[in-house]
Write a structure and sequence with these properties.
mainly alpha; 11 helices
Length: 250
């Protein structure tokens, strides 16, 4: 079992490393050179303005760190009240997965230090409400990595709940496209963020037994590790995602 888990970890690491090596040409900051494919694709997507996207994209383009911390707390609280240990354990996995993802994402930002589109390109659309001082580096997208991290860990944990999976992945796709649409990120930033988020979720899930054992020992729940899988708590989680988007918007 440990050998299988280490194989999963090594494969995720190797695939991500290979992807980054193959994509190095997108980081050229020399504005005297012709624009690369990533920049040209960004212009195409960023310049395609529609009234429908102008209305819907702002619903999902608010700070993502707070929701990533709120959802595990929401799930833990609701499952604790109903003695649902399965969902309670899921909240622990979401927490570990989210923290790991944030560490990898911001570590990569500090390594690559890629400028955002507005710093390298002219004549583009850029959301004036976005403050570069909060997060000046573009690669990878923290919004994409966090939203795909949440969606993937939920998909792995609740593979019998298509409504929940669809809801979170739709939100992740809207968030990721919105980063290009608002001018905050290049397509490669978003794609890599999605891979990092999904990869850290898969890594966490491969270590779920060890993480759940630690949590069970911490809360003295050794005899009731995975009891319960009521979908009520899961829909509370999805409902909080939708509600938070609307609260941020208005």
């Amino acid at each position: 079992m440990l050998l299988i888990k280490y194989n999963i970890i090594s494969r995720v690491t190797v695939l991500l490393f290979a992807f980054l090596i193959c994509s190095q040409n997108v980081f050229s900051q020399d504005t005297s050179c012709s624009e690369n494919f990533d920049q040209r694709l960004f212009r195409k997507l960023n310049g395609h303005r529609t009234s429908f996207l102008d209305l819907t994209i702002p619903l999902t383009e608010k700070p993502i760190t707070f929701p990533s911390l709120l959802f595990p707390v929401t799930l833990f609280t609701s499952s604790k009240a109903t003695d649902n240990y399965y969902d309670e354990n899921s909240s622990a996995l979401m927490t570990v997965s989210g923290i790991t993802n944030l560490a990898v994402t911001f570590g990569m930002k500090m390594v690559f230090k890629r400028n955002r589109p507005v710093q390298s390109l002219d004549s583009i659309y850029f959301d004036k409400n976005f403050h570069l001082s909060n997060d000046r580096y573009s690669f990878p997208s923290g919004h994409a990595s966090t939203s795909f991290n949440m969606a993937t860990i939920i998909a792995l944990r609740y593979n019998d709940n298509p409504a929940l999976i669809t809801g979170f992945y739709m939100q992740a796709l809207m968030v990721s496209f919105g980063r290009i649409y608002t001018g905050a990120h290049y397509p490669m930033d978003v794609l890599t963020g999605a891979l990092v988020g999904s990869g850290t979720a898969i890594l966490t899930y491969s270590l779920r037994k060890e993480i759940i054992d630690i949590k069970a020992n911490l809360f003295n729940e050794q005899e009731s590790k995975e009891i319960g899988s009521d979908k009520v708590n899961q829909y509370i989680l999805l409902g909080s995602l939708v509600a938070l988007d609307f609260v941020y918007y208005f």
